[in-house]
């Protein structure tokens, strides 16, 4: 067992999901936490997504296809976690697909009403049931819009560079509101100004201490 998992008595079967807007640092956090806790990872596979590029070029045409694709992928990951019995760090939660992305495109008219109704009814039938366990903890990464935008630029995915700033602004605002109402599982909020996973070797231990406090209900 990992030294830090042992030190902070993090249960072996824990499922921890990392939420936050595009570029905030979820994948990086997923990698570092999984390494330190010796947990499995569950990543969004951006390179293999057959709709994502097309979606960024034409939201109206591809919104529904993309949401169905993400729903299927996340459900398959959920099945894998169930079969392996936990011990996972998950890069993005399924709640963000509906609470942020699908809703944003429906509100803006880039997903039509019929498609949105079909998508939400499928989502509710699949996810909002007792058969779909919630994670033990959701870590919410937050940061100033400017810092998030510079990370999107630094990462350099073409489709995201060409997307107008207003898209990321709106998403950032929606995330701020969404997390205030989120109550499906315990939440640990981390501001990206308060840790540095790239240059500070001690940062991950401080984060794991906070995770332990939340999981053991100490705060
Ligand atoms: N703690 C950090 N400090 C500095 N840069 C970071 C940090 N975490 C992530 N980054 C950088 O920000 C960019 C986006 O990070 P990523 O983990 O891919 O975000 P997300 O998965 O939320 O979209 C990447 O270029 C990554 O190297
Ligand atoms: N449900 C989604 N709808 C639209 N776009 C989505 C959804 N989930 C993820 N995305 C996009 C956003 C980014 O361009 C990539 C990967 O997300 P990231 O936050 O960088 O991990 O997919």
Automatic annotation (TrEMBL):
Family annotation (Gene3D superfamilies): P-loop containing nucleotide triphosphate hydrolases
Transmembrane segments: none
CDD domains associated with the record: dNK
Residues noted as binding ATP in the record, renumbered to the chain: 20-28, 151-155
All residue ranges annotated as the Deoxynucleoside kinase domain in the record: 16-214
Enzyme active site: 91
Positions annotated to bind substrate: 44, 56, 67, 92, 97, 160
GO cellular component: cytoplasm
Keyword annotations from UniProtKB, A to Z: ATP-binding, Kinase, Nucleotide-binding, Transferase
Protein name in UniProt: Deoxycytidine kinase
Organism, as annotated: Alkalihalobacillus trypoxylicola
């Amino acid at each position: 067992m990992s030294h830090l998992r042992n030190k902070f008595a993090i249960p072996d079967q824990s499922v921890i999901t990392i939420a936050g807007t595009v570029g905030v640092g979820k994948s990086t956090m997923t990698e570092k936490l999984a390494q330190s806790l010796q947990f499995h990872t569950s990543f969004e596979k951006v390179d293999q997504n057959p709709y994502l590029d097309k979606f960024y070029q034409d939201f109206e045409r591809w919104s529904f296809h993309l949401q169905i694709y993400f729903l299927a992928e996340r459900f398959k990951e959920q099945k894998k976690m169930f079969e392996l019995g936990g011990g996972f760090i998950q890069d993005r939660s399924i709640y963000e697909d509906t609470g942020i992305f699908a809703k944003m495109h429906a509100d803006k008219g880039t997903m039509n009403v019929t498609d949105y109704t079909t998508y939400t009814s499928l989502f509710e039938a699949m996810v909002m049931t007792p058969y779909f366990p919630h994670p033990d903890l959701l870590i919410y990464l937050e940061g100033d819009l400017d810092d998030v935008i510079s990370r999107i630029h630094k990462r350099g995915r073409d489709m995201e560079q060409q997307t107008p700033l207003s898209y990321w602004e709106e998403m950032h605002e929606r995330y701020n509101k969404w997390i205030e109402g989120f109550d499906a599982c315990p939440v640990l909020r981390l501001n990206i100004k308060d840790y540095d996973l790239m240059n500070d070797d001690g940062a991950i231990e401080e984060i794991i201490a906070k995770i332990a406090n939340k999981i053991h209900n100490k705060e």
